[in-house]
TrEMBL record:
Similarity field: Belongs to the short-chain dehydrogenases/reductases (SDR) family.
Phylogenetic placement of the source organism: Eukaryota, Fungi, Dikarya, Basidiomycota, Agaricomycotina
Alphabetical UniProt keywords: NADP, Oxidoreductase
Molecular-function annotations in GO: oxidoreductase activity
Alphabetized InterPro entries for the sequence: NAD(P)-bd_dom_sf, Sc_DH/Rdtase_CS, SDR_fam, SDR_oxidoreductase
Extent of the signal sequence: none
Protein name: NAD(P)-binding protein
Keyword Metal-binding among record annotations: no
Highest taxon in the source lineage: Eukaryota
Amino acid sequence: MSSSKVWFVTGVSSGFGRTLTELALKSGDKVAATLRKPEAISDLASKYSADVLLPIQLDVTKHEQVKAAFDRALTHFGRIDIVFNNAGVDVMSEVETMVEADARAMFEVNFWGAAFVTQEALHVFREENKPQGGRLLQVSSGGGVVGLPGNGFYAATKHALEGLSESVAKEIDPAWNIKITLLEFGVFRTQIIGDNAKILPHHPAYDNESLAGYQFHKHVMSPNVRGDAEKAMSQVLRLSRLEDPPMRLMLGNDVSPIIRDKLRVFGGELDKYESWSADLDVDE
């Protein structure tokens, strides 16, 4: 690979996708910037030439559009070094009160859209890049590891992406030089918790300030969220240059403690009840 990398970024209209695109361009990289409405980055398109920035209209829930977007990026840049699989939506609600249409829409984007991008990225890295290889950066969340009160269906989409990504990492041949990292973010100041946030009404039974879901909604929509998206994306740019990247990278001061707590509880339960499985095989 040359020192200048070619990125394929989904969800560039705002948030992490927009911020990462700007930082990559400033660092001298090239970006195929995909989003539903390319006019949302017309300011960037007027600032950077087509040699380094290629806006592409893309709805990640349409597999044929995903494939066409990769094909266009390949034709334009010749290769794709890094895929930032970022497009996502969030509708917050307790599990009981979630509207089915909203839940399905989240899975369409956060899981199926990410899955389609994953499939095409693997194909490009192995079959099209010369030499073979590439980096697949999967935008997950602390909610992909730990259940989120008041945001259970979003957490479910990210748990699904985690399982898919772990499986892919075990399937691929190391000779293909494909590196996969799950980015497990905490809460950052982006539009997903700002202008783009959607919180469904509480059922009266959950309208209790002492409940975890109520507190979660109150926190993520408050000025107390201190995560800086630009600083986080600077670390993602740094990650993209590592020769031996981790399978998981946790980013955010609020995410590591909840994952450590889960590991502690998980390990304790495993130790306490592992013996229950000692005699569960068929007797010969």
